[in-house]
Specification:
This protein has 684 residues and is α/β, with parallel strands linked by helices. It is built from 29 helices and 16 strands. The strands form 5 sheets. A 5-stranded parallel beta sheet has the order 10-11-12-9-13, sandwiched between helices. Strands 1-2-3 form a 3-stranded antiparallel beta sheet, with no helix packed on it. α7 packs parallel to α9 and α26 crosses α29. The longest helix has 21 residues, at 155-175. The chain starts with 11 loop residues before the first strand and ends in a 36-residue tail after the last helix. Residues 1-10, 255-309 and 659-684 have low confidence and may be disordered.
């Protein structure tokens, strides 16, 4: 019988750990339409915290945004407010917040109970709390809510949370001697998740402790066959150890009675992990303190591929080499290098190439972790990142503690005196990176779209900001990728393409791929980049989000807070080539200090450039993307009109002027009011 979510008649309650359920004062609330269900699901999972309008829109319309996305989203919010009642949804900046008691959302109550179980001093208390938490689940999360975006990005993580809680509760059951009680449950779970070795290990342990060794051996053969057939791998060391103990009649092969810990589950190699350590998987043959092979991973093959494609980074490589020589000579200096720059500038390629050159100085191995700071998925939490790094260092899962500080300490202990390279790719911010820093003796290379100011100021990281590719290097890239032969392309056309692509190697590679595939002339690409359909449509291969500049840029935009997102759209949509701080304050409708703080966040995210004159500039490719976003927001058009009116209201020319893109600085604004409609867009 399905458990009822509503246990009393007070206020709004939302259930997402199963079919979506919502009630108000004990009465069910019916939501008319799938999009309303998606909006509520997103707001409920973040109850108490605002969700930006851009993030909501991406969830509701993951494939194609409507022409007037802001208005469409406001309509959905209005309908949802009408269904939930007054006071349920608050507007916060550019986003929305569901105002509901955290314990009235089953997911948030589940997380609270699990947290209390982890902190509990007594195993019985922990088991009771976990049982209550797991009792909130009524099936697969958000059953019946059709959303490819949620299915891809959110629901797998929720299932992982449930399985982790189940793992902890079963470990406590086994430690308490409830072997027979959990056997049937574990058989059902291994049938549902047949590639999860942690569940098989618990089943085998339960069968051994219950005096059923023959069934335990059958279970081992079942998982070994499944892993070999579907993944082409052998069982983990923990499972193999259990099996060897069974064959030798070792009654203690499952430990004293059963596992006494309730730590994180052992690593499953089914592709469900949140992070990918060294996707290439090459082994560098490091050793531990005893001289045994530790099997640490490397990205040598991937680095070699990126080395062949790396162009025009001699200055950055030389600067890194000089810094590392100095840092190595002075053991007190930090050895953290931060390679920063906008999306598509080539940070990862440079990091892999340069790290590959440091093998002689750091011969004991390399770890490579994608922190997912910017991309289609949520950033990797430091706790999960540490878990992944510890797994790669061959730390047994049962030895990995649950807390962040304890895991960070264990990482430093596991690395010990080894001299390794730790490549932390695609970091969101310094807070994500800091717990992952090992002790002295290692080289840490971090890449990020953020300037990582805190990592530089507090942790002493050496920051290298990657600049745009130059025309000679762009020629070499086009010649190599498009197989055009030397000097096929006109220098003027190359310079135009570099400008339209904002000097981003990724954008240029997309152009080169199109040239090679279609055999068209570079001047035709230039015309398309300048055409009415917009350059973003021209900068995509059509079959991969990683080679679609609109999508790649969207990952930076989605990471912004609502105020910074609005400022990004407006800074790109306003018709001047650059923007004075005073004009920016008028545009945003804020004070100068408030405006300066917001624009500084955009500069820190490499979405805006601050020039030596104090004015702000946005590269053309970013302007095209920002303007495209702004066209769907009515409030943005009103803000731009306010800026234009402010300019025009100063015929004496005492205010700072905006210069139209490509126009000389002496460009004069017409006096009086601006014409309406499209004509207004011609004026700065």
């Amino acid at each position: 019988m399905r458990k009822a979510l509503v246990v009393d008649g007070n206020g709004l309650r939302v259930g997402i750990l199963g079919p979506l359920e919502v009630s108000r004062d004990g009465e069910p609330v019916v939501l008319a339409g799938e999009k309303l269900a998606v909006v509520l699901a997103v707001l409920a999972s973040a109850a108490g915290r605002p969700v930006g309008g851009g993030a909501l829109a991406d969830r509701v319309w993951p494939d194609r945004l409507p022409e007037r996305v802001r208005g469409s989203l406001q309509t959905l919010i209005m309908r949802l407010r009408r269904a939930l009642g007054p006071g349920a949804i608050a507007t916060v900046g550019d986003g929305y917040r569901l105002d509901v008691e955290p314990d009235h959302v089953d997911l948030l109550r589940f997380r609270r109970l699990v947290g209390e179980a982890v902190a509990a001093d007594h195993p019985g208390t922990a088991r009771e709390l976990l049982g209550e938490a797991l009792g909130l689940w009524r099936g697969d999360p958000l059953t019946g809510v059709r959303s490819p975006s949620l299915d891809r990005d959110e629901i797998p993580g929720l299932i992982e949370e449930r399985l982790a809680a189940l793992h902890r509760r079963v470990e406590l059951d086994l430690a308490a001697g409830r072997h027979d009680a959990v056997t049937a449950e574990l058989r059902e779970l291994t049938g549902r998740y047949p590639l999860r070795e942690s569940l098989w290990r618990q089943l085998i342990v339960a069968l051994i402790a219950a005096g059923r060794p023959a069934e335990a051996i059958q279970a081992y053969h079942a998982v070994r066959t499944r892993l070999a057939d579907e993944l082409g791998i052998d069982p983990s060391a923990a499972l193999q150890s259990l099996y060897r103990g069974l064959l030798h009649g070792d009654d203690d092969s499952a430990g004293p009675g059963s596992p006494a810990r309730a730590d994180a589950p052992s690593p499953d190699r089914s592709g469900a992990d949140v992070a990918c350590i060294d996707t290439d998987g090459a082994d560098i043959g490091g050793t531990d303190a005893s001289g045994a092979d530790m099997g640490s991973t490397d990205a040598s093959a991937r680095a070699g591929a990126d080395s062949r494609r790396l162009l025009g980074r001699h200055r950055e490589v030389d600067a890194l080499d000089r810094w590392l020589a100095s840092a190595t000579a002075d053991g007190s200096m930090p050895t953290v290098a931060a390679l920063v720059g906008p999306a598509g500038i080539g940070k990862t390629a440079l990091a892999l190439c340069w790290a590959d050159r440091q093998h002689d100085r750091f011969p004991d191995g390399r770890l490579h972790l994608d922190l997912r700071g910017y991309g289609p998925h949520a950033p990797l939490a430091p706790e999960r990142a540490l878990e992944s790094l510890l797994h790669e260092l061959r730390v047994p899962a049962e030895d990995i503690p649950p807390g962040l500080d304890e895991r960070a300490s264990l990482l430093r202990t596991a690395i010990g005196a080894r001299r390794m390279v730790v490549l932390l790719d695609n970091a969101r911010d310094a807070a994500q990176v800091r717990p992952l820093l090992p002790g002295p003796g290692c080289l840490v290379v971090v890449t990020s779209r953020s300037q990582l100011r805190g990592l530089v100021a507090y942790d002493g990281a050496y920051r290298v900001a990657l600049g745009r590719i130059r025309v000679p290097d762009a020629r070499a890239l086009l010649d190599a990728t498009a197989e055009a032969g030397p000097h096929r392309y006109d220098n003027d056309d190359i310079a135009k393409v570099v400008d339209r692509c904002a000097g981003l190697p990724l954008a240029l590679r997309i152009v080169a791929e199109r040239l090679a595939r279609n055999g068209c002339d570079l001047s035709a690409i230039v015309a398309e980049l300048d055409g009415p359909d917009g350059r973003l449509d021209a900068l995509r291969t059509g079959d991969d989000d990683l080679t679609d500049m609109r999508t790649v840029l969207s990952w930076s935009y989605r990471a912004l807070d609502p105020d910074a997102a609005r400022a990004f759209r407006l800074a790109g949509a306003q018709p001047g080539a650059d923007l004075d701080p005073a004009a920016a304050a008028i545009l945003l409708g804020l004070t100068r200090p408030e405006t300066g703080a917001i624009l500084d966040r955009l500069v820190g995210a490499h979405l805006l450039e601050r020039q030596p004159t104090g004015r702000y500039r946005m590269p053309g490719l970013l302007r095209a993307y920002a303007a495209e976003l702004s066209r769907a927001v009515d409030e943005d058009r009103m803000a731009i009109r306010a800026l234009l009116d402010w300019y025009v209201g100063d015929p004496a020319g005492t205010r700072p002027r905006a210069h139209p893109a490509g126009a000389p600085a002496s460009y004069a604004l017409p006096a009086g009011r601006l014409p309406g409609g499209r004509e207004a867009a011609r004026y700065p």
